Amino acid sequence: MDLSDLNDIIDFLNATARSVGAEVTSPWFYLQVGLIIAAAGIAFAADAGIRARVDMTSFARGWPLPLRHFARVLVGSASTAVFAVLVIATRVAMSHATWPSRSYLLMVGAKLAVAWLVIRLVTSVIRNAFIVKLVSLSAWCVAALSIIGQLDPAIDALDSVSVVLGGLRLTPLLLIKLGLLLIAALWLTNIASNFVESRINRSADLTPSIQVLLVKMIRMGLMILAVAIAMSAVGINLSALAIFSGAAGVGIGFGLQKIVANFISGIILLADKSVKPGDLVTIGDSSGRISAMKTRYISVAAGDGREFLIPNEDLVTQKVTNWTYTDKNTLVKVNFGTNYEADPRLVCKLAIEVAAAAPRALKTKTPGCILVEFAEAGMKFSLTFWIADPDGMDNVKSDVMLSLWETFKREGIRVPYPVREIRVRGGTLPVETTVEVSN
Fold first, then answer.
1. CB–CB of 218/196 below 8 Å?
2. CA torsion, points 320, 324, 330, 335, in degrees to nearest 10?
3. Cβ–Cβ under 8 Å, residues 189 and 223
4. What's the CA gap between 160 and 70, in Å, rounded?
5. What's the CA gap between 313 and 264, in Å, rounded?
6. Is 56 strand, coil or helix?
7. Scanning 287, 309, 339, 389, which has its CA 20 to 30 A from the CA of 251?
8. What is 59-79 written as a DSSP string?
């Protein structure tokens, strides 16, 4: 910014100050301010009355969707609408009664109210609250500057300050334009990617892993395209950004290697189909069903309200147990013991019958029971049977063990348990502890 630009800004500020000073000294100014305050009070009172009498859940029900949406937004902005109507009516009355310049402030207030009402109607289709606020405030500031005739001077002032980086001239105006275009482009990209995602997820010919992979690739491609279009629209030559490529490479090498590793690992997981949404997995001490696969991590729902967020890199470098990789059928193993007085063949027969009667046991695969060991405390057995889905496997084991207990109790088969006795011989001898096992 050179000296002539600074002088222009100073002259603009002086002219604005003289204009405001002349306006404030006029009695008509205070009359207009009073009328605006009165209109604002009436508008807020009317808004409270309308909200108390209108049920938004049933209002305009049965109307066409665009008309119903317009009516509900208008009722939600009732204070602004009433204020605009009152100020416009007052402006018209004063224009016929005296010089139009004496109601200039009313005209500005009416235009600002109408501009805000139009902005509310336009931004009501946006679902993101932050973007709604940002777009609304930005659009209203532009409208306000345009209404008071200061938009062009403000644009010139924002464009007069610049910083040159590698042949790229950066100004506040350029950054504002780029930010607004990026927000609009990314919003449209999000709508398009959500539409494509819904179409892909409906396809029965694609596996869940391929669906997630396609959605991520399309979303990433649309985001890159949106950024490129926004930068080109404001006049930024993409080749001028080559100076930042080296810094980006250093940043990836020192600080972003984990992020890049997780991103590449996510692509690998989706491509080789080793895990997919819906699989039941065990990773270290974490077990659960994969509920979502993101760019950086996967979400594993434990079934008790917890969700483990596991980085994609861990699934590539660590041991992962996938219970449903090729087949959901799961072998359930129940270990138990009996005393030596029991007939081991009868025990195996009873255990097989109990497992076969379990509601979730597969009828196509016969349960098995084998004698594993003659231990000090009794005989040890291993009962195995198959279920169709690993979900709730612990509950199945518990039900089978309870049935075993009831069956053994009915048949007179005892489960061994250690019995400890402490014997003291004499008053001066040391205490001797022996362990006996009850069979």
1. yes
2. 20
3. yes
4. 41
5. 8
6. coil
7. 309
8. TTTTS-HHHHHHHHHHHHTHH
DSSP state of 390: -
Q: What is the spatial distance between Cα 81 and Cα 114, in angstroms, rounded to a whole number? A: 7
- List the one residue out of 101, 139, 133 whose CA is nearest residue 118: 139
Helix axes 151-160, 3-24, angle to 10 degrees: 150
Question: Could you report the per-residue pLDDT of 396-417, keeping only the tens digit for each?
Answer: 999 999 999 999 999 989 888 7
* Cross-strand partners of 19: none
Q: What token pair was written down for 405?
A: 């207990």
Q: Rounded CA gap, 353 and 366, in Å?
A: 10
Q: Sign of torsion, CA 7 11 12 17?
A: positive
Which H or E element spans position 298? Answer: strand 297-301
In this structure, what DSSP letter does residue 430 have? P
419 touches 436 (CB < 8 A): yes
**Pair of tokens at residue 398:** 């518990």
By the 10 Å C-beta count (0-12 exposed, 13-18 middle, 19+ buried), 326 is classed as: exposed
- Distance CA(243)–CA(250), nearest Å, equals 12
Residue with tokens 């997820």: 201
Do β-strands 417-423 and 432-438 pair in parallel, antiparallel, or remain unpaired? antiparallel
Spatial separation of the C-alpha atoms in residues 22 and 24, rounded to whole Å: 6
Alpha-carbon span 360 to 367, nearest angstrom:
12
Identity of residue 3: L
pTM: 0.48
253 three-state secondary structure: helix
Phi, psi of 58 (to 5 degrees): -110, -5
List, for residues 107-155, the tens digit of each pLDDT value: 888 888 888 888 888 887 777 777 778 778 888 888 888 877 777 777 7
Partner residues linked to 311 by β-bridges = 297
Enumerate domains of the chain plus CATH numbers. Answer: 3-161 (no CATH), 169-255 (no CATH), 270-322 (2.30.30.60), 330-420 (3.30.70.100)
Question: In this structure, are residues 338 and 408 in contact, taking their beta carbons and an 8 Å threshold?
Answer: yes
Helix (H) and strand (E) counts in the chain = 14, 12
